[in-house]
Design a protein that fits this description.
Two copies of one chain form a homodimer.
Chain A lengths: L1 H4 L6 H8 L3 H8 L2 H8 L7 H7 L7 H14 L1 H15 L4 H14 L11 H21 L10 H17 L7
Helix pairs in contact in A: 2-3, 6-7, 6-10, 8-9, 9-10
């Protein structure tokens, strides 16, 4: 249902109805909707564990902090599951779950904070996503040498200013 | 052989020997090694058609010019073959062809021109690759909205300064 209808338009109630169980049961075993989503795509962490702390970070620092939050996670044992999921989604030609997550959850939680000028928020976030997805590709899927073994801090320092520019710098195409 | 041994260590002579034909025959039908490589991974254009013109561009402009060269190509009919190939390589879990191409051909042709301080060239190029692969993912594989339909010029203006920074700006981790 997440893949077909998107995360926004999928309710725990609808999932429970489809599974013919009580919604309270789904809540009990899976928690919030993003936790259920994480379980559905086999990532071992609730995305809100990353997105939540991000909300405490001043907008002017998000671009610098983001790779320092994500890279250690991706590099960890836990990250292997995430990479495997990304790979299988790519192989299965069904990117709708990743798309839905980026467009709905991330755009809403982060995009709303950088929506200046109005309307630019989703575009800003998608440029950030393009760089981060590219880092995942280069480091874990293509395993470019030396990129795959660069220290987290070196990658963070290199891409951080660029991510920050996407989030709060001048954005071509917007006045 | 390209996948197993890399592009550098694969000669037309070795390919011809493996196919039990005269190397001249391979040259006659497939041209140069990069043209043969392009045919092997089913991309309809010799990578040198992009890399060649790039060599005429001053180093200080490569980051700005690169997306203006590549995006129209990827957006074209011809690009669909490229995207399909990328997808199948990812699905097949064998990224060695893409890796070899990025590490050997691109690093040699472009990396050597931005190798300042010495040793930084390959790293610079791989950061550029990470952003460009991420654009391919966001625009053609994940098909993020509105990213998938942003004008080429808007993407080029947005990522160009960042690519240029990777190529000729300060690079963390290098003195």
């Amino acid at each position: 249902m997440f893949a077909r209808n998107g995360i926004d338009k999928t309710s725990i109630r609808a999932i429970a109805a489809d599974a013919d169980v009580d919604p309270a049961l789904v809540h009990h075993y899976y928690g919030t909707k993003t936790e259920l989503f994480a379980a559905a795509i086999h990532i071992p962490i609730d995305p809100m564990q990353i997105i939540g702390p991000l909300q405490q970070i001043p907008v002017e620092e998000i671009g610098h902090k983001l790779p320092r939050l994500l890279l250690p996670l991706w590099d960890s044992e836990m990250g292997k599951g995430f990479i495997a999921t990304l790979r299988s989604i790519l192989a299965g030609n069904d990117p709708s779950l990743v798309r839905s997550f980026l467009q709905e959850v991330i755009a809403k939680e982060v995009g709303s904070r950088v929506d200046n000028p109005p309307g630019s928020g989703p575009v800003r976030v998608q440029f950030v996503a393009s760089q981060l997805v590219g880092v995942v590709m280069a480091r874990y899927i293509l395993e470019l040498d030396p990129f795959k073994s660069l220290p987290v801090e070196q990658i963070a320092e290199t891409i951080g200013p660029n991510l920050q520019r996407y989030l709060t710098g001048d954005l071509p195409g917007f006045p």
